[in-house]
Structures are given as C-alpha cells and as structure tokens.
Amino acid sequence: MNNPHVALKLNAQNLQEISRMSSVEIPGYNRADVTPGIVHFGVGGFHRAHQAMYLDELMNLGRALDWGIIGMGVMPSDVRMRDALASQDYLYTLTAKTPDGTLNQMIIGSIIDYVFAPDNPAHAVETLAQDSIRIVSLTVTEGGYNIDPATEDFDHTNPRIVADREALQAGDTSTLQTFFGLITAALMARKESGSAPFTIMSCDNIQGNGDLAKRFFLAFAHSVSPELGQWVENNVSFPNSMVDRITPETTDEDRDEIEELGYIDAWPVVCEDFTQWVLEDSFTQGRPPYEAAGVQLVSDVEPYELMKLRLLNASHQGLCYFGHLAGHHMVHDVMADPRFQDFLLAYMEREATPTLKPLPGVDLDAYRRKLIARFGNAAVKDTVPRLCAESSDRIPKWLLPVVRENLAADRDVTLSAAIVASWARYAEGIDEQGNPIKIVDRLSERVQENAADNRTDILSFIRDRGIFGDLVDAEPFTKAYADTLTSLHTVGAEATIDALLAQVTV
C-alpha cells in the first residue's frame, strides 16, 4: 500500500465522502431503488467495464432501475470476485484511460448481489427462476461453452454435464455444477409454474454467440427431456451481440492508484476509453432501454461480429505471439514498432477485410487504423501474455475462418498462416532469449506436445485435426505456414516480420 493513512473503504456508507475528496463520479441514483432484472454469469473485468457500465449509465439517467444485476459464479475462482464485491456492497471503481493518460473514473452501482452457485445450487436455481429475472447473460469466455473441439458440437460426454443431466432428470437441483444445468433448471421451473422464460444473452467473443448459445442450450435441454427442449426452442430468445472494450487484468498497481485517491477498492477495473455494443433486438420479456446509453440495436449482428472478431480479435493474436517471442511484455511496446503496425494493417486489409460482409456507413479503413491506435494505448497497460492465453479457443474461432474463406476463394493466406506459425513457435514454451513461456490454455499439454516436434516435422503442430481440421491438407496454407515457422527458428520474430512485409508488398 502506498498510503499508510488510508482507512476509507469503498462501500455504500462512504460514497459521499469519496465523492467529496476525489473527482470520482458516484452513482447518481438511490441504489435502494434498484431491483434485480438480470443474472450474469462470468463477472470479470470485461463485464464490469462493459454491460454493467451501460446499465449504470441508464440508471444515472433515472431509467432501468428494475434491471439490477445479480452476479453468479460456478467456478472455484469466482469466490474471490464474490468476496471482493460483497465486502464493498457490490460497488467498484471503473477507470477508463485515454491514450494521453486522461482518467475518467466512476463508481459503478448496477451490480446489487452475487451468488456463488456451488455453495447452494438449489438457491442459485431459485434466484434464476424468480419472475423478476428477465435476462440471463453470459461472459464465460470461448472455452466456457462445452464445445467438443473435434466436432464443434455440444459435448454431451463431459462428466459435469452428464451429472447435471441425470440430476435434472431425477428432479434434483442440489448438486448442479454447470451454468447449463443451473439455467436449464430455472427454465424447467418457469415452465412448470406457467411463467414466461427469460432471455439468454451471450456477450462472448464468438461469431453468432446467440446462435451458438441457442444450439447448445437446446442440445442440453433436449437431452434432459424432449418436451423441455421443444418448450425452450419455442419460447426462449437468444440474441446475438458484438461487444468491444479492451480490458486488461486488474493489477496491484491499479489498486494502488485508487488508494492514492483516498480509498480502498478490492477489485477495481481499468479499460480503454473506447466501447461498443451491437445487440440483436430480440428479447423474450423486454429489455433495458439500451439505446439510450449508446448501444446499437440491430436486426442482424453478424456483419459487425465479423468486423470485430476478424479485425480486432484476430489482430490481437497477430501481435501477441510474435511480440512475446521478441521479448515484449506490454502490448503498447509491441505497437511502438512500426513493423508490427504495418504487419497488422497488411493482415487486416489483404486477408481479413475480403471475408467481411457489407457494412453500409462503416469506414473500414478508419476502423482498422483506429484499432492500431487502440492497441498502442500505453495508459491501458494491456499485457502480451493476456492476449496469448487460451489460444486453442481463440485461433479456431477468430482466425481460421479467415483462412478457410480465403482458401475457398483462391485468395492469399500468407499472413494468416504466419500468425498460426507464430502460435506454433510460441507453444514450444521458450522465447528467443531462452526464457520459459508459461502456456495458459485449457489444452496446454496438448498444444505443447504438438509443438515439441516442430523442428523435426515442420507440420506437426497443425496435424491436430481436432483443432485445425483439414488445413494440413491445404498446400497454399501449409507452404506459407512452414516458411514462417522455419524463419522463426532461424532468424527470429522481428526479421520474420520484415520478410513477410517485403513478401506481401512486392
């Protein structure tokens, strides 16, 4: 702690004092008037910088006070968030940082409770089933949807899913483990009571996130009971959405910055100043007036999803492995090198943009260059390891569709293949300075084993058809991939970037 005299803790009682002694904005509404309308799974930094922030803005306008958020966690790691938020009346500080270092700081009050489901699964189901809950939303990451990597379908063999299905068929909610089980149990209760069901709103970085959530919840519900599955299919809405705000993990330095203001926040959030939310206007029981807070309500989200996933998210993968290998820890340090800027712009212009759908009124050139500026925002202090995490979930969903569409259209895949090769080199677990790399990935052992033979079998990493499908059979892809991986082994990341730029700008 930098200030030993600080004793003031963030909570409802101290809000006025915090407002008096700092420039931090506090909720302009009476939180006692806020009632629950949403249960959210996956209360992390992004949710608190994005969806919860939008609701807080509406509440400050005197609207959506009946749409308060109850957080819900199912993972052991969620206990920390539950305890941190509960200790300060579910308030937290959000700091949006502009590229010039200007801080826009506010205390968010739209989260009003948190339920850690493993403590009492039956109570969690009761919380979800209460009539006031009209939306159940999700930010559970790409890896949270129980996807079978080999088939891309719902994995019915997952032991936790099997246990939840058997428990629901036996009418037992006391042992449920997954959000699929908990949410489906609440829908069963709604069906049995004759109440209208809630909307299930995915806010994860997955193309067609609402469509995928619908397909998977239906798969699970039908496996519990065909009648239940049909009822869910007929009555529950699953809107698609595109969400965007760079939100790095909270650090002790972030906590210290809040303490310098004169109070203690156990888990503040830091983010960039840019935010966007494009949402399909399809809800079972209404929704907050999101448009009043700047949300774009549309009938078709897919063009916006493709723009964001294939330009922003795939470009994050384009910079992180090369950057990590070259010895960079901070994203803005990678982007301070003009070669990385040129590489990402070339990928976006030459390979990603041709796969997008028409977006009338959107200046894609301006969007691409805005992304470069956002990545270079030093004030946000985003880290390269954060972007490298969970690659086996991210690359197949964000980058490989670009590869496949371009191969099908006989277009170039040089830079996309290079990004995959940079992941393969990174997965070897040693950077160019000889330092070990900690691989954070649910398939970490598998991808490291695949990468272990890179130098004796140049295609070993992409022979994993469960991750890459049949791309190992596509000669235009494998040649570009092998060329880059060989270059990374012989001359390193920076020289490889130089060679790639020279190749595509000839």
UniProtKB/TrEMBL annotation:
Keywords: NAD, Oxidoreductase. Coiled coil: none annotated. It catalyses: D-mannitol 1-phosphate + NAD(+) = beta-D-fructose 6-phosphate + NADH + H(+). It is an enzyme of class 1 (oxidoreductase). Residues 300-487 form the Mannitol dehydrogenase C-terminal domain. GO terms for biological process: mannitol metabolic process. The keyword Disulfide bond does not apply. InterPro entries: 6-PGluconate_DH-like_C_sf, 6PGD_dom2, Mannitol_DH, Mannitol_DH/Oxidoreductase, Mannitol_DH_C, Mannitol_DH_CS, Mannitol_DH_N, NAD(P)-bd_dom_sf. Its EC number is 1.1.1.17. PROSITE patterns: MANNITOL_DHGENASE. The keyword Oxidoreductase applies. GO terms for molecular function: mannitol-1-phosphate 5-dehydrogenase activity. Residues 37-290 form the Mannitol dehydrogenase N-terminal domain. Belongs to the mannitol dehydrogenase family. PANTHER family: MANNITOL DEHYDROGENASE 2-RELATED, MANNITOL DEHYDROGENASE DSF1-RELATED. This is Mannitol-1-phosphate 5-dehydrogenase. It comes from Corynebacterium suranareeae.
